Amino acid sequence: MRYLFILFTLLFLSIYSGKAQNTNGNKAAKFISLMVDSNYKEALDLTSADFKAKVNPATLSKIWKGINQQFGAFEQVEPLDSITNNNNSLILQATFKDYIVPLTFHFNTSGDISAFLMQQQPKIRANTNRSPANFPEEALKIKVNGGIISGTLMTPKNPQAGTPVALIIAGSGPTDRNGNNLYGVKANSYLLLAEALADNGIASFRYDKRLIGESVNFQTSQNNLVFNDFVDDAVILGTFLKNQKKFQKLFIIGHSEGSNIGIIASEQLNPDAVVSLCGPGENLATVLENQLLTQPSLVKEATSIINLLKQGKMTNNVPAELNSLFAPAIQPFLISSFKINPEEEITKLKIPILIVGGTTDLQVPTSHAEKLKAANPKATLLLIKNMNHTLKTAPANKEANLKTYSNPNLPLNSDLVIGLVNFLR
């Protein structure tokens, strides 16, 4: 599975370009230097016995090549500003062509490298933080429970009195404020959405969810993350926007999993309207069960795990091929997410609702949008022909469809922009 492979390759990154601070730093630098020179056997001589038992030279070779394909060519590495450096660990920041990746090296009592992993989400280096169309943007940092959320406020070029503002909520996984992530998605969907809104007189605030992108300074770790953390953040951010006198109306726009977050947050925020973009119409457990039907060899074990999680029980008995879906570290989040039923939540809203689905969405079929509409008949349903999950025009063919995920230059589907703006006006 691609997701599992990527998580594994994240364990082996970086070069320590500065002067080594201690023995551990020297060993880490030498290890990576040997990998760069393709001396994988010599590199393994610097690792612990447990490490060598799991990884061989051929594996290191494959991983290092995969890393440079995934993150771009290596450039440099340096300590983080908030470096944690003790006898057992060392944090470094590796810079590749397309990403900046914070890494933690672990050492055993003998000073051998026992593991190294990514502590924070990689940051995309592509120049996507500023609007290509030169709409005014302001970087904001807003305090929420346990940390700071970083985001971007975009406004029209000639804002009028009482300009409305939209809170754009990203989808699942490490998707950043622009709609991109380290798994190959570089579509700039949310940046383009913000520009489309600004071009039609609507300001927007898009943000990195907690533990994603620049919103990484939190007291809680991924192991303690639950679904309501994201809802609470959205409520605080929406309240902040509502309290800005320059904005007259607040709209909530949630994409994919962000649709669930937006719908539930709207129960507290009572915005002027809420928009579900390619949002699920079923409980996450049901979605996973249906997706796994296409992989018969995994269904039995996966169903057993899902049933335990539905009961609020965690398990460490997760097969390697299912670890990307059910790793113990993310099970608290899954347990909390399995309690969310979008069809029930959307019935609680008494405000204008726009439900959008794309006919070529490979991840969330239009049947989900139809289920949300059936649950709240007063909502407006917009099914857009040939729109996929990145909100771009795309064919049904899977290979051609997925190519749009890595193309930031493709515009948003025009029917989406027209339908969205007409609804919000």
UniProtKB/TrEMBL annotation:
Signal sequence residues: 1-20
Superkingdom assignment: Bacteria
Record key words, sorted: Signal
Residue span(s) of domain Serine aminopeptidase S33: 186-280
Matching InterPro entries: AB_hydrolase_Est10, AB_hydrolase_fold, DUF3887, Hydrolase_4
DUF3887 domain mapped to chain residues: 28-116
Any Pfam family: DUF3887
Protein name according to UniProt: DUF3887 domain-containing protein
Organism of provenance: Olivibacter jilunii
